[in-house]
């Protein structure tokens, strides 16, 4: 299923921004971003995302409505919502291994609409966690990434009628 995702790495942009920075600057590279384009409307995609999270009994901590936030300051970025969710049973061992992973956890999926298309984006968890030096969690990270791939695919594509 990973082949249906497009990967964007912004490491080059980060590297360019860090040129000339002192040694106190972090050496963490930007995360790899995985993107899926939905076949449906923003509302339908959002509803399917919510249903997919609920079906897996994942805790939805909050939804940040970036579009409404932009409107509150007189700007328009279109429809854009960040879903923050997770499973403490899966994430806590990662934070025990490296407490700074609290900056990255819980999981996040961004839905946004641009030029008539609806996109879902997320960071590649395995890449992000390894950037913090955690290298002994491959099985857990594989399962988390697989679950996130399934969630995004379900949200982006309706199930075929039988």
Explain how this protein is built.
This protein is α+β, with helices and mostly antiparallel strands and 162 residues long. The protein has a single domain, classed as TATA-Binding Protein (2-Layer Sandwich). Helices cover 40% and strands 24% of the residues. It contains 6 helices and 6 strands. A 6-stranded antiparallel β-sheet has the order 1-2-6-5-4-3. Strand 5 and strand 6 form a beta hairpin. The two termini are 22 Å apart. About 12% of the residues have low confidence.
Ordered list of secondary-structure elements with their pairings:
Blueprint: E1 6-9, H1 11-18, E2 32-37, H2 42-55, E3 59-65, H3 66-71, E4 80-86, H4 88-97, E5 107-114, E6 117-123, H5 125-131, H6 138-156
Antiparallel strand pairs: 1-2, 2-6, 3-4, 4-5, 5-6
Helix pairs in contact: 2-6
Brief rundown of the structure:
Helix content is 40%, strand content 24%. It has 162 residues and is of the alpha+beta class. It has one domain (32-156): TT1751-like domain (TATA-Binding Protein, 2-Layer Sandwich), CATH 3.30.310.
Write down the overall geometry. Answer: globular
CATH class: Alpha Beta
**Structural class, judged by helices and strands?**
alpha+beta
Query: How are the strands of the largest sheet arranged?
Result: 1-2-6-5-4-3
Brief descriptors of the model:
single chain; 162 residues; alpha+beta; TATA-Binding Protein; six-stranded antiparallel sheet; 6 helices; 6 strands; 40% helix
